[in-house]
Amino acid sequence: MATLLGSESPCTGGKRRHCNGNVVTKFTASKITGQGFSRGTQLPGGLLQERDKRAKWHGIPTLLQRLYESSHPNSDLSHAHSFLKVLSSQLSMEAMSFVTEDRKTAQESTFPNTYTFDLFGGVNLLVELLMRPTLTMQKKKANMNDDLVKDCLSVLYNCCICTEGVTKSLAARDDFVLFLFTLMTNKKTFLQTATLIEDILGVKKEMIQLEGIPNLSGLVQSFDQQQLANFCRILSVTISEPDVGNDDKHTLLAKNAQQKSNASPSRAEVNQVTLLNIPGFIERLCKLATRKVSEATGANFLQELEDWYTWLDNALVLDALMQMATEEAEQSSTESSDESSLATSPLRHRLPQSMKIVHEIMYKVEVLYVLCVLLMGRQRNQVHKMLAEFRLIPGLNNLFDKLIWRKYTASNHVVHGQNENCDCSPEISFKIQFLRLLQSFSDHHENKYLLLNSQELNELSAISMKANIPEVEALVNTDRSLVCDGKKGLLTRLLTVMKREPPDSSFRFWQARAVESFLRGATSYADQMFLLKRGLLEHILFCIIDSGCTSRDVLQSYFDLLGELMKFNIDAFKRFNKYVNTPEKFQTFLTQINSSLVDSNMLVRCIVLSLDRFESQTEDVKVVEVLSECCLLSYMARVENRLAFLFRLINIINVQTLTQENVSCLNTSLVILMLARRKAKLPFYLNALREKEYAEKYPGCLLNNFHNLLRFWQRHYLNKDKDSTCLENSSCIPFSYWKETVSVLLGSDRTSLCAIASYIDEPYMDLDRDLLED
């Protein structure tokens, strides 16, 4: 024991350092084994003081000992609070340096005070102190004033961000995590509690179940709008499926296997249902998302906003400043916490006006994210009905020019990819979340017409009448009292700003996705003409051919949008030919398509399908004229070009590499073969594939790969949980014909001219027989 503590031993300096190392080692080991020392208070005070200076503990173990001794049940916690304040000041300096120095890797040498605090049991002591009222059986419980609770929470948060492992250890304590939610009922401790919960849930191995939170419904209903917005930051972790940002990168084989093993609803799905069952929850989110905010003016507005953001870590940090303003306002006998009262606060006047904008923007980012996730969940129709009822879309339309897309636009904002969790400014995050919400709202849902105003709906009706075609049922059934107000609807406003974006702007990707979602589903001639009349096709072609855009994400989104805009629309092909009016332009367009078929194959599918339909409409003079003049249709009409696309589409994918992003290549190759089968030319195409194999000196590889892909297609799309309507709507080919064609291609009869097996010579048959074996 003498060696462990180094008490009476006349150690040399080196020996003393070794002794101190033993103390640290013992504490570290006790955390792992649960045996031996559990906190620094078990060591003699004299020893702690004697070792303090040499070990550079800065008096933390001694302060912890005093904190422990003054925080026993029934003791006066004011003394404990005074010791905690001293500790808090030491730890907060390290936390501030951590936040302002780009969040360096937490380690002992970087943050010695926080490390020492945790090593000597400080974290466990504060957890015990906070939870004591819930554990004691005594009627008279120790008085835990709000300031003491706030300081306990702040110290724990500082430990989480500065010392590796603290957050994970707290996350492992389900009792403590659920207890923290009960502290959110107190407005004075809400901010600190929310900050700590957010950090803990971010590393928790298992997603928390919201239904386990005591009186969750009452808790949420007790929140004011500011608290509810911050609560959305926490909710975003509990309702999102893990790795949702990289969804396209997961292979379909892996995802199918996971779905088979997890047949029951996931925790995220259960949590979504729990939220939807809270009375008034969605209505309040809609109000938060659409409430107005004072507008800042001046040429330096954006720079001022960005300067503030450089040191604001997140919305909760900003809230700390806003809370100061609120408290000062309350001291001035201003009871209300709405915008007008905050504006009268003396401190509020000392805060830059732009902070108020950032504050509201950060709130809206969190709210829109939660609404977007709910829109993509299993309860989508229920959420859609509520968002329409509570006029979310008209509310966002009213905010579009003044807040969402103000005339102040950053000329050098960061161009980034698709990951919604990217580290970017509040302005950029807000715009992306807004566009993702529009995409989710419009995608394959009849409520998409709420993005228009009454005049624009009338325009759609007029287009249908002029073309002598019936109006789309969803348009007829649209409740006009729920559509956008004003001179322009939300979709039209989006088109306007879309045309102003720089060529490689990351916003272009999300803008194109949002507009494309409006067109997806059963093809609507009126919807297409509405957008064509506003110059969308020419804008897309400019971006693809003339703008010099090199972003693959942006180009893919524009190819997909162009495909939806032109599909089966003879007027669109006529406009295309008018814009692409030179061989050089057409060659540039083809080069862009061929540079990545994974990105452009949906457009290729559109051209093939449209050509097939137009060729059956030769009694129409306009169709015949466009067929003879359009360079794009003429190009695709040549069988050698269709075969070239087919070869590449089959060759760039295999079962192991299929993802949600590239499975469209398989479906596009199937469309080409289905149309060939309709014209009794399927054997010609299969034989051409065989000849291609031999010409390239890899007999059997292409056809065996395609055979395996089709076997996977059957397992994937014939699953009872799969929705086949997307394939049917996008192609106007009945799903029964899809299934029938795949079955014919996979036929085992080697005498059938429509079976792949007939075109693979026996020595090369089934090279990859085991690819799909379980």
TrEMBL record:
<dbReference type="InterPro" id="IPR022162">
    <property type="entry name" value="TRPC4AP"/>
</dbReference>
<protein>
    <submittedName>
        <fullName>Transient receptor potential cation channel, subfamily C, member 4 associated protein a</fullName>
    </submittedName>
</protein>
<dbReference type="Pfam" id="PF12463">
    <property type="entry name" value="DUF3689"/>
</dbReference>
<dbReference type="GO" id="GO:0031464">
    <property type="term" value="C:Cul4A-RING E3 ubiquitin ligase complex"/>
</dbReference>
<dbReference type="GO" id="GO:0006511">
    <property type="term" value="P:ubiquitin-dependent protein catabolic process"/>
</dbReference>
<dbReference type="GO" id="GO:0019902">
    <property type="term" value="F:phosphatase binding"/>
</dbReference>
